[in-house]
Each structure stands twice: as structure tokens, then as C-alpha cells.
Amino acid sequence: MSATPPTAPAAASAFAWPVRMYWEDTDAGGVVYYANYLKFCERARTEWLRSLGLDQQRLAERDALLFVVSRAQVRYFAPARLDDELSVSVSVVEVGGASLELLQDVSRCAPASHASTTAATLLARVQVRVACVQAGSFKPRRLPAAVLQAIADRPPSGLRTVATQNVTRA
Fold first, then answer.
1. Which of 36, 39, 69, 152 is deepest in the core (most CB within 10 A)?
2. In this structure, is residue 1 part of a structural domain?
3. Which range marks the domain in which residue 42 is found?
């Protein structure tokens, strides 16, 4: 972890989800256990999809579609602690034929008494690739038009789409 954590960037188009730190999230020293950051990111991604009108259980039952994490890379800058109020953002970086590349920042919110003068502190940055798969076989499948449209209706800055024709993966 770096001695001076960077400040969280202001991402106007990013979705953000609040998370409070409880005893169950920490180790004996009151520091949030490193693997829990991935749980917080998963919750934020789920709520982001919900905000787009995409219910994962309905997609699984109706369309036999699941989203699975195929890659996650985490960079930790500073620890979260008991009672911290965090914000977990979700930004779409790239849309592929059967996957999404997402950037998620986990930041400590500025205290309410200092909100106008203190920026949020970036604690961790997570780059995640989420693959779209067929529920029964877990084989890759193209992102459905409804999912692509929901994402296109709220495009973040810097979004890239990747032309993926004839994509086959075992």
C-alpha cells in the first residue's frame, strides 16, 4: 500500500454504490480484509445492472444467461477500516462481443463535516472482465441486444467497443 493514497477521480458517468464497513468485514485489527473488496465490487456491479433495468436472476431464468468474472486485477492503495463509509464505482471501459471490461474504484467518502473541502480517498482500483455465458454449459455467448442497448443508453466517457466477428472459444 502506498504511503499517500491518490485521490479518487471524479467520474461523472460512473455508477456508484455506498458500502459501510462492519466488524464482519475486518480483521482483528479493524482493517478491512483484502478479499472483501471483491465482494463490494460484485455488489456494486449487481446494483449497476439493476439500475440499467437488467435483473440477473431473470436473465438466468428467461434467457439462460449468466455473467461470470473471467479476470480481476486489484491494486490496493490504502486500507479501509471499521465504520468507514465507502463508495464503489462501476465504469464500462470496453464492450466486446461476449464480455465487458469494467473499472471499479473503491473510495473512502469524505466525512460529512469536510465534504466540501476534502476529496474522497481512493483505496483500491479493480479492473474486471465479465464474460457472458450460457447458463447450462458456461460457454461464451454474445451479449444480447437488450444488454447492449441498456449500456448504450448510459454511455460512460471513454467507452470503447470492440469489433468481434466470428468469435469462438472452447
1. 36
2. no
3. 15-110+119-156
Domain total for the chain? 1
How many C-beta atoms lie closer than 10 Å to residue 145's C-beta? 9
Residue 25 has which C-alpha cell? 468485514
Q: Does residue 91 lie within any of the structural domains? A: yes
What does each of the 170 residues of the chain score in pLDDT, given as a tens digit? 544 555 444 444 689 999 999 999 999 999 999 999 999 999 999 999 999 999 999 999 999 999 999 999 999 999 999 999 999 999 999 999 999 999 999 999 987 665 555 678 999 999 999 999 999 999 999 999 999 999 998 755 444 444 433 333 33
Is 153 tagged catalytic?
A: no
Of the candidates 25, 27, 83, 105, the residue annotated as catalytic is 27
**CB under 8 Å to 101, separation ≥6 — which residues?**
92, 93, 94, 95, 127, 128, 129
The CATH code of the domain that includes 146 is: 3.10.129.10
**Cα dist from 12 to 24, 45, 89, 150, 165, whole Å:** 31, 17, 10, 18, 32
